[in-house]
Amino acid sequence: GFWFHCNFRAQCKSDPSPKLFFAELYQKQHDKLIVKDCMPLDEPWDRSHIVRGCYLCGNQLLHPVNGFEAGKIWQFSFSCRTSR
């Protein structure tokens, strides 16, 4: 399957200021995308709660420290390990 991460801004009709969100989506082969996680990234951005990037995205997107599945360091280390 394929994992996707994205940032987007959304706002409520009652609140004119848009909020920044993080979403993680998963797709099996040609199936529809499944939203696995979607959460607001509260501003001001605190490094203890928000990081820039993961091992899949590089540093292009803001991510929560916890709360997403793909791209964490232990997954990257495990998937890149070679056997001898």
Primary descriptors:
single chain; 84 residues; mainly beta; three-stranded antiparallel β-sheet; 1 helix; 5 strands; 44% strand; disordered C terminus
Description:
- The protein has 84 residues and is mainly beta.
- It has 1 helix and 5 strands.
- A hairpin with a 3-residue loop joins strand 4 and strand 5.
- The longest helix is centred in the C-terminal third of the chain and has 8 residues.
- It is flat and about 40 Å long.
- The C terminus is likely disordered.
Largest sheet: 3 strands, antiparallel
H-E order: EEEEEH
Strand order of the largest sheet: 1-2-3
In the predicted model, the low-confidence regions spanning at least 5 consecutive residues are 74-84
Query: Helix amount, in percent?
Result: under 10%
Average residue pLDDT = 77
Termini distance?
A: 27 Å
The counted number of beta strands is 5
Indicate the structural class. Answer: mainly beta
Number of helices: 1
Rg estimate, integer Å:
15 Å
Beta-strand residue percentage: 35-45%
Summarize this structure briefly.
This protein is mainly β and 84 residues long. It has one helix and five strands; from the N terminus they run βββββα. It is 10% helix and 44% strand.
